[in-house]
Amino acid sequence: MSIIKSSQTHPLYKDLVKIVGEDRVSDSRVVMSAYSKDACHLTAERPEVVVMPETLDEIKSIAKICNSTKTPLVPAGGRNGICGACLPRIEGAVMLDMVKMDEIVEINEDVMTVTVEAGLRWAELIHRLDEKGYKLGFRGPYGGNAGTVGGSVSINSIGYAASKFGPSTEGVVSLEVVLANGDVITTGSGWNKDAPIFARYTTYNDITGLFLGDHGTLGVKTKVTLKIYPKADYFTYGDFGFTSLEDASQAFLEVQKLGFTEELNLLADRQSTDTFFPGFLDKHPEIKSMFASVVQEVDAQLAQRKMEIIREIALKHGGKDLGNFASQMHWSELFNLVQPLYNNGFWLNTCHLRPIPKIPALMDRMWAIFEKYQLLENGIKWIASCLGAERAYATGWVTIFAPNKEKMELALKAWNEMLDSVIETKGCPYWNGLLWEKRALKQTDQKFLDTYWTVKKALDPENILSPHVFEGGF
Amino acid sequence: MEYNNLSEYEQDLFLCGRCGDCSLADKIVASGRDVFHPCSVKNVLGFEVFACRGRIMVLNDLLTGELEVDDDIINWAYTCTTCRNCQETCTATADGIRLPEIMEAFRKDLVEAGYQLEKHEKIEKSINELGNPYKEQHDKRLEVFGDREWPEKADVVYFVGCTSAYREKEIARTTVDLLDRSGVNYTVLEDERCCGSVLLRVGRTDAFAALSQHNIEKIKESGAKTVVTSCAGCYRTWKVDVVEQGHEYDFEILHITEYLDKLIQDEKLSFEAPEPIKVTYHDPCHLGRHAEVYEAPRRVIQAVENVELVEMETNKRYAHCCGSGGGVKSSFGELANKIAADRVHEAEDTKAEILVTACPFCHKGLVDGAKHSASSMKILDLPEFLMAYVKEGKKKSKAAEHPLKTKFMKYLRKHPLIFDGLKKDAIIDYEIEGERFHVHVLDKGEIEVVPRRSENPDVELIFSPAAVEKLTSFKNEEEYAAQFGLFFKEPTEEEWIKFNLRRNIVKLLMKGYRKFAQKAGLI
Ligand SMILES: Cc1cc2nc3c(=O)[nH]c(=O)nc-3n(C[C@H](O)[C@H](O)[C@H](O)COP(=O)(O)OP(=O)(O)OC[C@H]3O[C@@H](n4cnc5c(N)ncnc54)[C@H](O)[C@@H]3O)c2cc1C
Ligand code: SF4
Ligand code: SF4
Question: What global pTM score does this model have?
Fold first, then answer.
């Protein structure tokens, strides 16, 4: 039932209809409008036709026809990325809207894995696992209501529970991938046609890793197998405040090293805390920076003892016990913590990774930029928040909010300087995309890049999969 | 083309961060909000353009001139049921991005620019000429009730609505039967006209004022202080739109579910099913999300002895729409049928024997949806469902109150200062051992403690009995607040408090919960 008529002008329109039927293909300009952006302000080309596949076979056929006609093919998940990664860099692209591929294929309780179709959203997966008494390690990016598993592992997304489990890609055991020519491979123990999927590193080299973070350039992921864990019902929470960011960072590092915390979130300054949890520090005028910590365990005493140790570390570094409201709210609003911040304006992000001791250097640069552009005076609020990530590094999420269209220009100026500062203070973006590519390329070792392009040419000789990504276009 | 009405919403269109929750969200994980793929239109048609996020992108493209109005845009504009599920899901602003209003504003622009669907033109003509959208004779409006004479004056007016009068007649008949049985002094208007809802929904606002004024006048003439309607569309129009459009009236508007709830509480009616039966309830968008009536219909259903109410996967604030609203059924019948079929499947999944709703549009839509998918689900509107179970003679006497609930309510009434700082109309719902009541902040220092679950609270607080015993032992509010904070921070197996935020954080802050949390030592 198509209410908006397709223009039927895309050269592959009829072939695509043959593969998936009329209802799941459109090349109408109205329909394309809704695929013209992800959750950031950046734009590239619009796709010229969108297909919503439902099966592996359909994707194989689509890849084959694109390959034989040299038509660009761009996979998209929840389009909830914030770096423009899913937007085509070239005219004429076929976009795969993957969200109908959202089944849970198997929960394997013997080897503790879950295999899902790539278009499944994190929130949905967590619920289904919860019903069965399991949890994921990494739970999903903060945008995990709409962010898909396939999209996230294609761009190294990081977020909830990264403190203990690392980024999305750390949880991957195996992938099923459709290659540019329509062939399909299963990585990890999937190389053995007769064996179950249970291990990532077996017999050959780690081909899974090749496709992780590829930004859709090396293949279309159709299934992802992730590690799962028994659900743990005991939580302890703790919020600790510090009179300087240096003290907070040191305590944060020490806690992160222990690996106790499911989630560890540092808010770098008072403004950030007030933007997140208005009024939280009103009674603590001396506090400049804080962190919120969440411990999840299978045993109540274990959870309590771990929190006591975290508290001792915080106090040793001059920290103050602020209770646990922020950490409880932080955890209970899973996947909906960030969206209320939109009320402050449209966001401009600088997400990246960095060693924890380098957080204060970043913030010195950021504060200088905030001052220079008089952001607060212009109604532009910010959040500077860092999530602990496995072993001992952190995300740096410094975001400013342009309150209206008129302030966007000023915000963009400040934001561009912020991006420069991230790179200059030795940060590494987790995802790349339109947001980071030009800056990242300047820093990239040529031999590293050449190796990537050698792989790309071997796997996708016609260069149909997300062409021009990693070239710095747009 | 001019976008005078749409332009009013430019800030909303700017603030949408395209997170996609309104399109793809599953349950908002730990906070107990039962969202599931909110947009029932997108769920059928697939492409993002039909969900709120995609709609906002298209509207922004229209405003910048990237897209221009053509037939596709016009059709697209009328595929939104304005069900508001996206807005309810969206936490970006205090009220959520107001997509239904935005779509209606855009439809107004279309109409003003001369673009329209032929069907809508016909509907407006019929309403103007005959007082109903169905091209039915005005003097036949009350034929549904037979030869009955209606008093000119009464305490209560039953506002029948066009759909019940001409199409879903069983709803009108059974409503009247129930009112008769309850013994209330009521009447219907001899010259009732369309409430105008359908015109507003499709952007044709010219005739609305005259309709409202006419109906207000006639109700005034009847002397009624209460107007009851069995149509969710009429109810929302009276309760929300008529007032927003600047018309004043001094009578109370109640949906039949609210009125029956009252009659049952007052022991004027009672119901009993001969055998145990499982029932599920579909929330009409205009009664639920648009007017915030969720609990009254449920209480009424649960008041029927032998009936077990089971909830569908999406319910109350996040219930999927039946597909009939916003002019979709009249413009795109097949789409409406498919959406309704999805909803009927949700009902089937509960294993309920009857799907009850409380709106003639929903009823018709769901019945058509069931036919469309060859489902044998029995679908009844609430009055029709109840009529089969009216209990003659002895009315059900009220259940004894839970002593701890009574004690807690009494305590809170005596200590309104606990709620100091909360703004007018803040509502907190309390639960102890499954028993519910709520506190409604009326004004500074003034609260109302109501022995029922709130229709749409800001926050739900759940207490262990031991926590209530301890809290109610404190003499002053400071001690109470300190202990409240402690239960939250350091719960024990015996003494604990849990909470569910039912509104997003931005809205809670606007309602004064920051001070409340500070006083309770939470922050
Ligand atoms: C409110 C909010 C909070 C957020 N918080 C975080 C956060 O904490 N951490 C974080 O990392 N990000 C965050 N993000 C960004 C976003 O949630 C993540 O980047 C998410 O992983 C994107 O997933 P997606 O499915 O939407 O991918 P898309 O944006 O659709 O695509 C991302 C990339 O993956 C590729 N791709 C998609 N599917 C496939 C596939 N099946 N096969 C191959 N390639 C594919 C696309 O081509 C593109 O390059 C947030 C976004 C929002 C709106
Ligand atoms: S309307 Fe709200 S929920 Fe939908 S994409 Fe925009 S911000 Fe997200
Ligand atoms: S109002 Fe309802 S139908 Fe319209 S976009 Fe929102 S959820 Fe979809």
Answer: 0.96
